[in-house]
Amino acid sequence: MKNTVLIILSLVVLSCSNNYDTYKSIDHSLADYNIIPKPSHLEVLKGSFKIDENTSIYSDSLLNTETDYLESTLKAITNFSVTRSTKKDDSKNIISLELSDNIKAEEGYTLEVLYNKIDIKAKTTKGAFYAIETLKQLLITTQTEPETQEYLIPATRILDEPRFAHRGMMLDTGRYFYDIEFVKQFIDLIALHKMNVFHWHLTEDQGWRIEIKKYPKLTEVGAWRNGTEIGRTPGDKSDNKKHGGFYSQDQIKEIVAYASLKHVTIIPEIDMPGHNGAAIASYPYLSCFPEEVTKMNDNIISEKTKELLDSGVKKVVQESWGIKADVLCAGKESTYTFYENVLAEVAALFPSKYIHIGGDECLKDNWKRCPHCQEFIKENNLKDEEELQSSFINHMSDFLNGKGKKIIGWDEILEGKVTPNATVMSWRGVTGGIQAAKQGQEVIMTPREPYYLDYYQVADTINEPLTVGGRGPNTVEDIYLFNPLPSELTESESKNILGIQGNLWTEYISTPNYAEYMLLPRMTAISEVAWSKESDKKDYEEFLQRLKVFKKNYIKMDVNYAKHVFKD
Q1: Fewer C-beta neighbours within 10 Å, C or N terminus of the chain?
Q2: Distances from the Cα of 142 to the Cαs of 119, 145, 151, in angstroms?
Q3: For residues 358 and 407, is the Cβ–Cβ distance under 8 A?
Q4: What are 380-407's pLDDT values in tens digits?
Q5: Catalytic residue numbers?
Q6: Contact, 326 vs 303, CB < 8 A?
Q7: Residue 399, H or E segment
Q8: Contact predicate 115/156, CB 8 Å
Q9: pLDDT (tens digit, 9 = 90+) per residue, 433-471?
Q10: How many whole angstroms separate alpha carbon 465 and alpha carbon 248?
Q11: Quick one: which of 324, 336, 320, 245 has its CA closest to 285?
């Protein structure tokens, strides 16, 4: 605070001058550099760079998109329209963005701020984008006169690069549908935090959210449910409200393009062989037993669904949460053909080299009594139903490999026979991740404690909205202090950990406002773990001080963040 007062007093004298030499002598303290995630190396230098009507930008032609972003960002904050310069002139008040082979890390950058110039250098466009995100956080707005503001960036030298290659967030749109404006805002939040992966959960028992042109009933039928259980599972009753929606392929393309501008890769998830109630309701032959009526919680069947069942309809979209027994039939060729066709359309829509195919929570009761599945097990010399699931996953993995894609699956894919080139997402703790890393497989750590953001975020839940019970809480502190590199792994094995991810499952999270509340500020803590180097000393109180400043980003974005860790 003292330092900020000094800046303001200095600027009262200097505000009418465009002599940038006068900004050489401004002193700064570490309190003026509250950056999240914390950079690898930061030096505090003397002086400030002033953004005003004389500021210009010079950039490499390959950085046009990033330069546009910087220009629009500065305009939004300062209301100054900076000019473009065709040459780099350090004698002017200039910001330069350049690509450099001297930066070794793919997403790394250097940022040097002096009183008369700002130099950004990066190996790739991604690094330049992250440097701009850092620059945004450094910008200080000061009041020099009642109606006059000055915009300063404190002098510094930053060398920065991320700890992990995969820095992800998952949004479940299968339980509740979120419109594309919220999806774009979710991507904005990912970019703000220097994260780079949007894991998009698109299919569930309770809703199918992606248009597949070959199978229109997936969205005509599967995208809609006639009611939703009220209360925590097993629930009290149905709300009898139709809920649903889906993303057209044109909307998918729009969102993919939007994410690309923010250097965010979208990894779609098409869950299989479990969690497929919506697909089975659309195409009953996908079930082991198409003529059997969908099993539902008796007290949570909507009036409309009761009418359908009474009329002779056998398969309906699920209206309650939990794990369902009616899964894909892994013994019929038609199931494999169906999902090859689905994945072919998905692979064409998403540039990501990964496609997530789930593989979790697949109950095998139906397989044990299904003649098709038992015959498949026998003909293919499989040991049991666990190996049947492995065979199914391996088949889909081989199919996607032929499309130039690799699969990601939840840690259940380690059961049975291993899919050697699959990436494992470890969610039931870190045990699956340890096993996979020791086997030489790629791993993304996303253990439900503490990275599941649908869990309560404080121990005292009396004033909290309904969410998953029986686990947690997953607090900001838990997330910040968690080390995703288990001590059981050697240095070499630890290199198989691609990164980390936070997951927002939405069984009880039906609105964007509620989703934002569960995301923030826990997402911010995840970003710090994902980006900042392991050698950084963990200091939770120091992180909270930076978080207190960072929350201005929440306010600017008009998002509903949780207030528990903020003391004022």
Answers
A1: C
A2: 23, 9, 6
A3: no
A4: 999 999 999 999 999 999 999 999 999 9
A5: 361
A6: no
A7: helix 385-401
A8: no
A9: 999 999 999 999 999 999 999 999 999 999 999 999 888
A10: 32
A11: 336
Helices (H) and strands (E) in the chain, counts: 19, 22
Peptide bond into 273 cis (omega under 30): yes
The closest alpha carbon to 390, from 343, 371, 367, 405, belongs to 367
Query: How do residues 285-337 score in pLDDT, each as one tens digit?
Result: 999 999 999 999 877 899 999 999 999 999 999 999 999 999 999 999 999 99
Q: Is the pLDDT confidence value at 535 over 60?
A: no
Both tokens assigned to 137? 């956080």
Both structure tokens of 397:
């993995």
Domains and CATH numbers, the chain: 2-160 (3.30.379.10)
Mean pLDDT of 113-138: 97
Q: What DSSP string describes 283-314?
A: -GGGBS-TTSPPP--GGG--HHHHHHHHTT--
Q: How far are the Cα atoms of 127, 266, 374, 409, 460 from residue 271, in angstroms, in the given order? A: 33, 16, 23, 9, 34
Which residue has 């065979």 as its token pair?
A: 391
Quickly state the pLDDT bin for 124 (edges 50, 70, 90).
Answer: very high
- Tell me 507's DSSP state: T
